[in-house]
């Protein structure tokens, strides 16, 4: 048993989502969105490095010393897994460990909109799950992949950094590759996938121009591609993809994206009013002729609001509408609604309501 496992056990007992270790500070954990200090000694360089070095390979530790950054996954026996991020900062070393439940939660158990199950019926195209760090993107994607695995006979490839949720073959065959261990990069994995006879490809994160280009090309070629981006709305997601390309390439990308983009799910986690965990709020944009026209013709993306309003019968929804609904249902307080809303003016009158 590793020494750090005692801290991980405390995380599980307190139903925390993250463990934070930073040199010069006592260990801390995130419980229902709030950082709380643990009753532990202040971490010195020696005590922190003892925690960190013990649970990673020699190669990983050497990489961390060379680059000052490291991502990998660690299993706490059969209980759970943690996504580990080591980093260096002005005062020394640090690390964040995010808990990954062993149980793969379904779309239904997560309380996500039922329309997300329809993505499994697609044969090709690009579906993006977006949101800030810690908003549950990986959990949502794992639930969608799990739904496909349970209901369809597909060949599924996931490319992750690191692998978080483990998928066991049910109806589908699932191949999981970890960047830095099984493959050099997201780009090289996508290039390999072109020769792999895959039906579904999950790209853990579209980090750069080349990865975005290859993901769109794979969707155009007949794969169903899922990926994540760090954007907080459907409009900003489309803007981000197009703007990453040079100006002379943008018209072609607009045309490709107008045909291949099948859905955008922008997600945020909000603290429950009763203090018992958090609830996911999702903005959902689905493919329609109107959406394709806006993307292709370079129309004002503020028109997406109208597209989502008129597409409610299909399952589309606007983030601020969901947040408002949660507030008036008593799930969240006014301050939380205001802080997570995109249109702050809309929630100004309730911002001080707890």
Topology, please?
Layout: H1 5-13, E1 18-22, E2 28-31, E3 34-37, H2 45-54, H3 58-67, E4 69-76, E5 80-89, E6 92-101, E7 125-130, H4 137-151, E8 155-160, E9 173-178, H5 186-193, E10 200-203, H6 209-220, E11 224-229, H7 234-243, H8 250-260, E12 261-271, E13 278-286, H9 289-297, H10 304-310, H11 319-328, H12 334-340
Parallel strand pairs: 7-11, 7-12, 8-9, 8-10, 10-11
Antiparallel strand pairs: 1-2, 1-6, 2-3, 4-5, 5-6, 12-13
Helix pairs in contact: 5-6, 6-8, 8-9
Head-to-tail CA distance between termini: 43 Å
What is the residue-mean pLDDT, rounded to a whole number? Answer: 94
- Which CATH top level class of the largest domain fits? Alpha Beta
Largest sheet: 7 strands, mixed
Total number of β-strand segments? 13
| % residues in beta strands | 25-35%
Task: Note poorly predicted spans.
Answer: none
CATH-level-4 superfamily name of the largest domain: P-loop containing nucleotide triphosphate hydrolases
CATH level-two architecture of the largest domain: 3-Layer(aba) Sandwich
Number of domains: 2
Computed structural class = alpha/beta
The helix fraction, in percent, is 25-40%
Question: Which strand order do you get reading across the main beta sheet?
Answer: 9-8-10-11-7-12-13
The fold-level CATH name of the largest domain is Rossmann fold
Shape: globular
- Radius of gyration, in Å, reads 21 Å
Sequence of secondary-structure elements: HEEEHHEEEEHEEHEHEHHEEHHHH
Count of helical regions: 12
């Amino acid at each position: 048993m590793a020494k750090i496992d005692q801290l991980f056990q405390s995380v599980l007992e307190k139903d925390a989502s993250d463990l934070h270790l930073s040199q010069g500070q006592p260990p801390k954990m995130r419980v229902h969105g709030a950082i709380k200090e643990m009753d532990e000694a202040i971490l010195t360089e020696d005590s922190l490095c003892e925690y960190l070095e013990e649970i990673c390979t020699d190669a990983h530790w050497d990489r961390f010393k060379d680059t000052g950054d490291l991502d990998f996954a660690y299993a706490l026996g059969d209980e759970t897994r943690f996504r580990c991020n080591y980093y260096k900062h002005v005062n020394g070393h640090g690390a964040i460990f995010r808990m990954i439940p062993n149980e793969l939660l379904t779309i239904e158990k997560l309380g996500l909109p039922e329309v997300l199950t329809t993505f499994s019926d697609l044969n090709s195209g690009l579906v993006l799950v977006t949101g800030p760090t810690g908003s549950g993107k990986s959990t949502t994607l794992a639930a969608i992949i799990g739904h496909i695995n349970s209901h369809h006979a597909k060949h599924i490839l996931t490319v992750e950094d690191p692998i978080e949720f483990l998928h066991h073959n049910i109806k589908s065959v699932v191949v999981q590759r970890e960047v830095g261990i099984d493959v050099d990069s997201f780009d090289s994995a996508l290039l390999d996938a072109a020769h792999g006879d895959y039906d579904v490809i999950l790209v853990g994160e579209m980090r750069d121009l080349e990865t975005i280009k290859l993901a769109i090309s794979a969707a155009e070629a007949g794969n169903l591609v899922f990926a994540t981006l760090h954007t907080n709305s459907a409009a900003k997601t489309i803007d981000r993809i197009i703007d990453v390309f040079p100006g002379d390439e943008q018209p072609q990308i607009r045309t490709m994206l107008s045909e291949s983009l099948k859905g955008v799910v922008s997600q945020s986690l909000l603290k429950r009013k009763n203090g018992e965990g958090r609830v996911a709020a999702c903005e959902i944009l689905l493919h329609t002729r109107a959406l394709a026209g806006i993307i292709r013709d370079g129309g004002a993306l503020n028109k997406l609001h109208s597209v989502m309003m008129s597409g409610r019968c299909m399952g589309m929804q606007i983030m601020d509408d969901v947040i408002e609904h949660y507030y008036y249902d008593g799930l969240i307080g006014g301050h939380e609604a205001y802080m997570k809303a995109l249109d702050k003016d809309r929630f100004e009158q309730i911002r001080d309501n707890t």
